[in-house]
C-alpha cells in the first residue's frame, strides 16, 4: 500500500457519516493560509472559519491549531525570507508573523480570538500541562475562540520539524476533545499515488495506524508547509491512543466543507478502538507516581471516592506523605482501618499546600494559601480508583 501526498483533480472520495462531537480541535496547515507571493490569504481560511462558526452556533466548542506564522513573517521582512535563513532569522519571522496570523483569524469571528503559544515541553511538564489545560478550558467557558500555535520563537526543534500536527493531537487530548480535524490541501489517504497510478483507491476509513501505513507515508507536499502525511498519521495515532478520532479532509474543497457542515465526511476517518475515558483511566493507572508520595484521607472521603466517584476536597484530607509538586501523580490512601490504597491521581496542589489546607473548607483555600487552583485537590477526571 502507498499513501498519497498529492490530490487528483477530482476527489474520488464518497460521503460517509462523520463523527459525533461536542468539542473538537481543528488543525490548519500553512499551505491553506499562505499567499503565493508571501504573507497570508483568506482564500481558504474563510471557508474553514465558516465551518467553525456554524458549529459554534450549534453550541459546540472548537480550538484551532494554526500554522502560518513564519509564512506571514516572510511578507513583513522579505529580505529574511530565503529558505536558507538561519534559525534565529526564522524565529524572528515567527515572532513577526504571529500577530498577522491572529489578526487573520480574528477578522472572521464576532467573538474574541485568544492567542495561546505552546511548546511540547509545556505539555510534557505536568505542572505546565495543568496550567495549559486550565487556561484553554477557561477560554472555552468564556466563549472565546482559542487559536494555538507552537511558540516557534523559542522551540527550535519544533520549528525544524513543523510538528503542529502532533501538537494538535496533544491539544485534543489536553481539552478532552472527541475529534481532531486536520485540514490540509489533500483529500485524504489513497492506496497509491493517484497522480501516477490510475488504480489508486481512496481510503475512507482506517481502523488503526499500523507500522506499514506509517512507513509508506510521504513527506511535505508544499513549499510552505513543513509537515507531510507522516506527521498527520503520527498525530492520528496519538489521538487514537487518547480515544480521539481523527478526520483528514481537504480544506481547499468547498464540497468537503459542505459535507462536514452537514455531519458528513469527504475524506479519511481514522477511528479509535477505545473511549476517551477508558484511554485516560488507563494512562492514570499506569503512569508512575512520585515515590513515597501520598495524600492521606479519612474514611468518609475514601467512601466518597470509591463508592460515588467523587473528587477529593480538602475537608476529607488528613495529611500528605513525602514531597510532591502540583501536577504530580500521587497515591491516595486511608489509614482509618489500616492502610488502604483508595485511588491515585494528579494533585492540583503541592504536598506543602495540602498540609496547610487539610480539613478546611474549600472557601478557606484562598485565605490560607493566598492563591487558589480550584476546590478539588484531585479532580475525579484526573483520578482512577484502586
Automatic annotation (TrEMBL):
Binding site for substrate: 67, 152, 164
Biological or metabolic pathway of the protein: Amino-acid biosynthesis; L-proline biosynthesis; L-glutamate 5-semialdehyde from L-glutamate: step 1/2
Record EC number: 2.7.2.11
One GO term of the biological process aspect: L-proline biosynthetic process
Record's subcellular location: Cytoplasm
SMART domains reported in the protein's UniProt record: PUA (SM00359)
Cited InterPro entries: AceGlu_kinase-like_sf, Asp/Glu/Uridylate_kinase, G5K_ProB, Glu/AcGlu_kinase, Glu_5kinase, Glu_5kinase/COase_Synthase, Glutamate_5-kinase_CS, PUA
Major subcellular site: cytoplasm
Domain PUA: 293-378
UniProt GO molecular function: ATP binding; glutamate 5-kinase activity; RNA binding
Reactions listed under catalytic activity: L-glutamate + ATP = L-glutamyl 5-phosphate + ADP
Family matches, as Gene3D superfamilies: Acetylglutamate kinase-like, PUA domain
Protein residues bound to ATP: 27, 184-185, 226-232
Any one Gene Ontology cellular component term annotated for this protein: cytosol
Keywords: Amino-acid biosynthesis, ATP-binding, Cytoplasm, Kinase, Nucleotide-binding, Proline biosynthesis, Transferase
Primary role: Catalyzes the transfer of a phosphate group to glutamate to form L-glutamate 5-phosphate.
Family classification: Belongs to the glutamate 5-kinase family.
Name the record gives this protein: Glutamate 5-kinase
Organism: Chiayiivirga flava
Upper lineage: Bacteria, Pseudomonadati, Pseudomonadota, Gammaproteobacteria, Lysobacterales
Amino acid at each position: 500500500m502507498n499513501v498519497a501526498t498529492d490530490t487528483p483533480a477530482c476527489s474520488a472520495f464518497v460521503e460517509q457519516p462523520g463523527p459525533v462531537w461536542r468539542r473538537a480541535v481543528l488543525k490548519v496547515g500553512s499551505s491553506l493560509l499562505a499567499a503565493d507571493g508571501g504573507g497570508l490569504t483568506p482564500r481558504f481560511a474563510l471557508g474553514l472559519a465558516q465551518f467553525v462558526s456554524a458549529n459554534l452556533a450549534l453550541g459546540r466548542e472548537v480550538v484551532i491549531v494554526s500554522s502560518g506564522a513564519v509564512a506571514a513573517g516572510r511578507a513583513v521582512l522579505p529580505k529574511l525570507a530565503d529558505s536558507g535563513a538561519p534559525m534565529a532569522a526564522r524565529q524572528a519571522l515567527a515572532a513577526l508573523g504571529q500577530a498577522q496570523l491572529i489578526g487573520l483569524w480574528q477578522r472572521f469571528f464576532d467573538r474574541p480570538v485568544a492567542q495561546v503559544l505552546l511548546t511540547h515541553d509545556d505539555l510534557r511538564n505536568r505542572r505546565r500541562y495543568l496550567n495549559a489545560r486550565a487556561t484553554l478550558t477557561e477560554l472555552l467557558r468564556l466563549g472565546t475562540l482559542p487559536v494555538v500555535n507552537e511558540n516557534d520563537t523559542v522551540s527550535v526543534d519544533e520549528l525544524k520539524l513543523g510538528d503542529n500536527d502532533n501538537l494538535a493531537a496533544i491539544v485534543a487530548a489536553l481539552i478532552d476533545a472527541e475529534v481532531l480535524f486536520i485540514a490540509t490541501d489533500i483529500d485524504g489517504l489513497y492506496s497509491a499515488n493517484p497522480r501516477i497510478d490510475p488504480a489508486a483507491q481512496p481510503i475512507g476509513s482506517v481502523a488503526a495506524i499500523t507500522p506499514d501505513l506509517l512507513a509508506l507515508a510521504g513527506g511535505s507536499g508544499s513549499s510552505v508547509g513543513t509537515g507531510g502525511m507522516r506527521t498527520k498519521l503520527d498525530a492520528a495515532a496519538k489521538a487514537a491512543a487518547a480515544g480521539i478520532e481523527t478526520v483528514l479532509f481537504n480544506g481547499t474543497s468547498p464540497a468537503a466543507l459542505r459535507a462536514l457542515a452537514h455531519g458528513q465526511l469527504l475524506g479519511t476517518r481514522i477511528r479509535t478502538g477505545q473511549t476517551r475515558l477508558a484511554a485516560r483511566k488507563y494512562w492514570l493507572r499506569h503512569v508512575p507516581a512520585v515515590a513515597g508520595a501520598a495524600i492521606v484521607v479519612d474514611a468518609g472521603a475514601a467512601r466518597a471516592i470509591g463508592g460515588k466517584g467523587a473528587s477529593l476536597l480538602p475537608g476529607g484530607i488528613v495529611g500528605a506523605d513525602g514531597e510532591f509538586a502540583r501536577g504530580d501523580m500521587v497515591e491516595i490512601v486511608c489509614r482509618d482501618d489500616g492502610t488502604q490504597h483508595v485511588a491515585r491521581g494528579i494533585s492540583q496542589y503541592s504536598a506543602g499546600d495540602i498540609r496547610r489546607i487539610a480539613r478546611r473548607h474549600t472557601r478557606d483555600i484562598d485565605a490560607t494559601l493566598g492563591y487558589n487552583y480550584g476546590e478539588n485537590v484531585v479532580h475525579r477526571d484526573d483520578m482512577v480508583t484502586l
